[in-house]
Amino acid sequence: MSRLQLFLQTTRARTLPVMIAPVVIGALLAWQQGASFQWGLFALTLLGALAAHLGANVINDVFDFGTGADQAAQNIVAGGETVVTGSQFLLNNKLSVKTYRLLAIGCFAVALLCGIALSFFRPLAIVFGVLGFLLAFFYVAPPLRLAYIGRGLGELDILISFGSLPLVGSFYVQSGTVTLIAVLASLPIGLYTLAVLYFHHFLHWRGDKEAGKITPVVALGEHGARIAGALLLLLIAIMFIIDALLEVYPWYSFIVALTVIPVQLSLRDAKGDLKHYLQLMAANFNGNLQAALLILLALLVRGFAHI
């Protein structure tokens, strides 16, 4: 395995599309609203957001490994009811915790440098960056450990850090202002990303329970969590429709609400079987990307129509 492959796997870079989407959408929304597109500022925003996202992935693995959540899942993998989704190189002793920590520091340092550079042009950019770091760090780090406390606090963290902050922050960098339109635009995007994490919990909830990590699936049970998941998908669809009616996004973007249908169907069939939960994860991730691409296309069409 090359160093690049090792880096990509350790940081779980395959999840980057969920951060790319809000940053690009926020920038295009600002352009569509009349702001001049600043390519240099956009590049710094995207680089900083992606570096912060990778750092968050790594620090999450460090603390999940430290609390024993991943080891608990690893111990019951043989039963065929769970999978281990993080810190694989810690579990097989290929990399040390120190290496993971240094990698997280490096990623966050890149994000900080981007935030400092952006602050010369947009003073509040560093505020968005610091808030994002705090949310990412205390999602699993003491004393808050929002993901472990449960009660929806971890999910609220994800909604803000993967929806509102990157989209509104990107909008601000391009336009120099924060508007209600940007906030409303961030809600369905953030909720869709929240859904990715929410359904991810089904893959290893038994290990989480043993480690004392009170995820929604642990708190509600599989049946209750499936019902809550269905309501979450319905809320995502409603928010896209509301944004279309309010012309936050173009009116024809209401079609994006249909992307939750395959996810709902997959959720309906996911009843305790790990294979079905993996299929649910894939369906939700694909739905998230399809929604982002449709929103981007709608913004581009409306933007070019007004030129």
Explain this structure to me?
- By secondary structure, the protein is mainly alpha-helical.
- The protein has one domain (3-305).
- The chain is 74% helix and 0% strand.
- The protein has 14 helices and no strands.
- It has helices at residues 3-10, 17-32, 39-67, 69-75, 88-91, 97-119, 125-138, 146-149, 153-175, 180-200, 205-211, 216-245, 260-269, 274-305.
- The radius of gyration is 19 Å and the shape is globular.
Keywords:
single chain; 307 residues; mainly alpha
Kindly report the average pLDDT value. Answer: 90
The DSSP helix count reads 14
User: Quick one: how many beta strands?
Assistant: 0
Beta-strand percentage?
under 5%
Low-confidence stretches: none
- Secondary-structure content class: mainly alpha
User: Tell me about the biggest sheet?
Assistant: none
Q: Shape from CA axes?
A: globular
Order of helices and strands: HHHHHHHHHHHHHH
Number of domains: 1
For the CA atoms, what is the radius of gyration? 19 Å
Termini Cα gap: 48 Å
The helical percent reads: over 70%
